[in-house]
Design a protein that fits this description.
There is one protein chain. This protein has about 170 residues and is an alpha/beta fold. Helix content is about 20%, strand content about 30%. The strands form 3 sheets. Strands 3, 4, 5, 6, 7, 8 and 9 form a 7-stranded mixed sheet that branches. A two-stranded antiparallel ribbon has the order 1-2. Strands 10-11 form a two-stranded antiparallel ribbon. Helix 2 packs parallel to helix 3. The radius of gyration is 17 Å and the shape is globular.
Length: about 170
């Protein structure tokens, strides 16, 4: 099957057969959601994970999870996707991404694709290691900065994306 980009360039198009879901990390991942939905040829479910980094310990804290209930032994449990596309624009310490990856794998997805705009080398390694040995986690990142400051922010970096998206800088 042939597809065509917005610029008119033709390419080979392949339909994704395994069930797929988009999972933005709240709030920052919401900024990537529309773009990813536009790229996918068909509508896919969207599930949200709310995680924040505790400012003192820099450890992730989950405050929201709307993954459909799943218990493998239950015949009435919701079908989980085979592939979860995790949207996390900034991977600084890697803790939030690693916690989200762990949640998705425990839910039963077979593969997690992480899409990020910017990451630190340390954070990307930590997130990638969460899948353990094998090919359960792939990370696609636009750029990599080497430094993370004491507040867990990439430097020079871009700051807190959630705050920038929702104009809450300084709170």
């Amino acid at each position: 099957m042939q597809g065509k980009t917005p610029l008119g360039v033709e390419y080979a198009q392949e339909t994704i057969h395994p069930p797929v879901a988009l999972v933005p990390i709240l709030r920052s991942g919401l900024g990537m959601l529309d773009a990813l939905q536009t790229l996918l040829p068909d509508l896919v479910p969207v599930h949200h994970l709310g995680l924040f980094r505790e400012p003192t310990t820099l450890q992730p804290v989950e405050y929201y999870n709307n993954l459909p209930y799943h218990r493998p032994s239950s015949p009435t449990s919701a079908q989980h996707p085979d592939i979860a596309i995790l949207l996390d624009p900034i991977i600084a310490t890697g803790g939030t991404s690693a916690a989200a990856i762990q949640t998705l794998l425990e839910w039963g997805v077979k593969k997690v694709l992480v899409i990020a705009v910017l990451g630190s080398e340390e954070g990307l390694k930590r997130a990638a290691a969460e899948g353990g040995a094998g090919d359960k986690v792939d990370i696609f990142v636009g750029g990599c900065d080497n430094n993370v400051n004491g507040r867990g922010m990439i430097t020079p970096g871009m700051g807190d994306i959630g705050d920038r998206l929702f104009l809450t800088i300084g709170k």
